[in-house]
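Quick start: what a row looks like.
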Amino acid sequence: MKLATSAQMRELDAYAIHTLGIPSDQLMTRAAGHVARAAMGFTGSNKTAAVFCGSGNNGGDGIAAAASLKRHGHRVRVFLTGSRKKMTPDALEMERRFMKIGGTVEEFSSSDETVGAYLAECGVIIDAMFGIGLHSELRENARLAVSLINAANVPVVAADIPSGIEADTGARLGDAVRADVTVTFTLPKPGHFIGAGAFCTGTLEITDIGIPAQLSDALQTDTHAVFPPEVFLPHRKRDSHKGDYGRLLLLCGSTGYTGAASLAAQAAVRGGAGLVHLGVPAAIYEITAVKNMEAMPFPLPCDERGRLTEAALPRILDKLAGCNACLVGPGLGRSPALTGLVTALVRRSEIPMILDADGINAVGGNIDILDEAACPLILTPHEGEFRRLGGNTAEAGRLAAARSFATGHGCTLVLKGPGTLSALPGGTVYVNTTGNPGMAKGGSGDVLAGLLAAFLGQGLPPERAAYTAVFVHGMAGDLCARRFGEYGMTPSDMIAALPEVLMKIVR
């Protein structure tokens, strides 16, 4: 699903109003109607509401929504947190219509102690202070309003995006409203799914306010949210054999980290891979062989601490020649020899390669090696690993940092975390919409890496393999959270859930 930036939405609105001649107050009235309907879904018998409005058109949406609530028998107080002198013409028109039916727009005062008491009595609060136009930190008056809204313990409906969230990055600008429902207009925005915005948006409702569909259909955007219709795997052909579904080489594990190798291999098998070769240090070969029935472990030269050495390179290259995809990293550990081994593989592999965990750490001190790769690369770092690669999410934000890294190094970057990002070499970024905090456990990343290898080996292009694996991984996690709870679920549970999840996306 396309995600539109604030600038793109302004352009769409302007084209609809000034070129197509759609009255701006008509668009605002339709937007307000959707917000009001969402609010009335909470009020029930308590037909008392509060609406917080800014001076801009988002405030106009709020005032118009207040008028709709009033017409439906609600007691409504509207608080203006911005400057009355700066109200837009459309916001002033909505105030005029509201006053015509007996409403009043009050100027919000930080010294008015009655506001908090009123909010506690409400059935719903509407947040229409800023919308998608906010790009700087909240000022004192707005910040206090946000604090009162969040403290009221009352359902909150946000118009377009929760106030305090930057639409393009999802960053929290000082503070932000925590909405139960966000009603957005025409297209969703990156800030609904990324950063703090993902946690403040609540349930997202995407509504039509009358901007022609052909305009949004024609919009070119480089950011997408991943939803079920876009994630699918093909039916298997009746006359196929195991060689048709990928020969994988997984290089994983070290002494003390046999679980990482087994989780990755089992996820690859459950992900549909035809053949899974699992190369492990000789020191852990026997225990790995016992743990893996469907994968095919084989021993490789290692040092006294059970870590692969550069002496393993000839055997690995021989295996690579007969494989379709390679995963390097889960549980490998760190050493100068491993750095040399991984560096050599990046330079010499001709098949798509995934660098995960210690595979990423091996190139962190020599990031330029990525530019020398002879094969498509997918890197799957969490935030800490990404920083070691030179990524700077604190300064640029996750979305911009992931995109910059992927385009700068010509690789696919899967930046893990809430709302995992799959950034492609061409600059497109896919934002994941599945997953939960129960997945924040050691081993979950190994499962993702093995699943990604399975999809890559079965012929999915790297970009599609990346966002598909991330989505399926999160979907399996969500299924486990429903069955076992977020505390009790394990990465092994997620592997066991994969068949049920995959059956839902085969078509």
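That is the whole record. The chain has 19 helices and 17 strands. The chain has a mean pLDDT of 96.
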